[in-house]
Amino acid sequence: MSTKDRLLGYLKECKGDWVSGELLSRRIGITRSAIWKNISKLREEGYVIESSPRKGYSLSRISEMLLPNEIREGLDTGVFGRGEIIHFRETDSTNARAKELAIQGAPEGTLIVSESQTKGRGRKGRSWFSPSEAGIYASLILRPNMPPNEAPRITFVTAVSAAETLLALTSLEVAIKWPNDILVKNRKIAGILTEISAEMDTIDYMVVGLGMNVNNPLLPDDIEEKATSIFIETGKRFPKVRIVREYLRRQEKYYRILRDSGFEPILRRWKELTNTIGKRIVVEMIGKRYTGVVQDVDQEGVLILKDEKGAFHRILSGDVTFM
Ligand code: BTN
Predict the structure, then answer these.
(1) Measured from the CB, is residue 38 less than 6 Å from ligand 1?
(2) Does the global pTM surpass 0.90?
(3) Separation of CA 6 and ligand 1 centre (Å)
(4) Measured between alpha carbons, how far is 97 from 193 in angstroms, rounded to an integer?
(5) What is the pLDDT of residue 61?
(6) How far apart are CA 211 and CA 130, in angstroms?
(7) What was the pLDDT predicted at 287?
(8) CB of 226 closer than 6 A to ligand 1?
(9) Of residues 287, 322, 316, 320, the one with CA closest to residue 303
C-alpha cells in the first residue's frame, strides 16, 4: 500500500477528528514534510482535509470522484471491479478506452471510469452529455461465452442492474423503456451502450457502457425536456461511488444468472421493471416508422407491436417514443 493510501486510511479511522502532524509522521513512519506532500496529493484527488497549525489535520469529506480505492472499499463482488479499475479525470469515451484495453487482453471485470468525457457516445451515433462532477461514465469489459446473436441479452442484464441500483439507493420511481433506457417520471436518467467484437460464432469481448445523470443541477436545453438527474429529482447530491458499487454487484449477480439459468429469469425481472408493455408508441428504425400498441417483449427481447391496422411487427432494435 502506498504512503498516501496509508495516510488516508489513518485519517479515515480518525473519523473527522483532528490528528497532529507529529502523530501522523510517527504512525506512518515518514517526515512531517512528507506528510504535508501526501496531504496535498490527497487534496488534489478531491479529499477535503482541514489543517490547523495547532491541531494538525482532519478529513472532513471523502473525494466525490470515482477513485479506484473508493470503489473497491466495501465492494463485495467476485470479479467485476476486483481486478483493474482505471480512472480518468477526462477522456474521450470510456467505451473507447475499454475497447483498447480489451484488444490488449484486459480480463473480464476490468472497469474504466471517468469524471468527464469529451466524446461520450450514445446509441445510434448520438452523443452522451458528459460534464465533469456530475455523471457516472463507466465501461465494463466482459468476455461472455455466447454467440454474438445473444449479445442483446447483456443489455437487458445491464438495464435490470442499473434500474435496481437506483431503486435500492434512492426513492425514485424508476422504469426501463425498451430496450435499455432508464427513466424516472418518463425522463431518461441513464443509458447503456453495449459494443461487441465477435467472430462468426463467438464473442471475443464486449464493452458495456453505462452513463447516468447523478449530480447535474441542470441539463442542456436540447435534452432538458427528455432527461433528468438524481439531483434534479431529489434536490440532493448523491455519492457516485455508492451507485457504481451497487451497480457492479447487481451486474455481476444477473450476469451469473444469465450464464447459469439462461435469459428467462432476466427477462422476467426486466418485465417487472419496464413501463413499455401495453403502451401506445411510435418506434423508429432506419428507414421505417411504426405506430401501435406494444403487445409484449418476446423470449429473445424483441418488441412485438400491433399497428393501427391490426398487423403485428417484430422490432429488433429502434427508438421508442410514448404517445
Ligand atoms: C444511450 O444512448 O442511451 C447510451 C448512452 C451510454 C453512455 C455511456 S457513458 C459511458 C460509456 N462511454 C460512452 O462513450 N458511452 C457510454
Answers:
(1) no
(2) yes
(3) 35
(4) 14
(5) 94
(6) 8
(7) 86
(8) no
(9) 316
CB-based burial label for 133 (10 Å; 0-12, 13-18, 19+): middle
Q: Contact, 203 vs 197, CB < 8 A?
A: yes
Of 128, 194, 243, 321, best ligand 1 pocket probe by most atoms within 8 Å of the beta carbon: 128
From the CA of 192, how far away is ligand 1's center (Å)?
A: 6
Ligand 1 touching residue 135 (CB < 6 A):
no
Cβ atoms of 135 and 210 closer than 8 Å: no
179 lines ligand 1 (CB under 6 A): no
All three cell numbers of 93, joined, read: 469515451
Ramachandran bin of 120, using left for φ above 0, alpha for ψ from -120 to 50, beta for the remaining angles:
beta
pLDDT tens per residue, range 88-115: 999 999 999 999 999 999 999 999 999 9
Q: Is 91 in the pocket of ligand 1 (CB under 6 A)?
A: no
Which H or E run includes 138?
strand 135-142
CA 93 – ligand 1 centroid, Å: 8
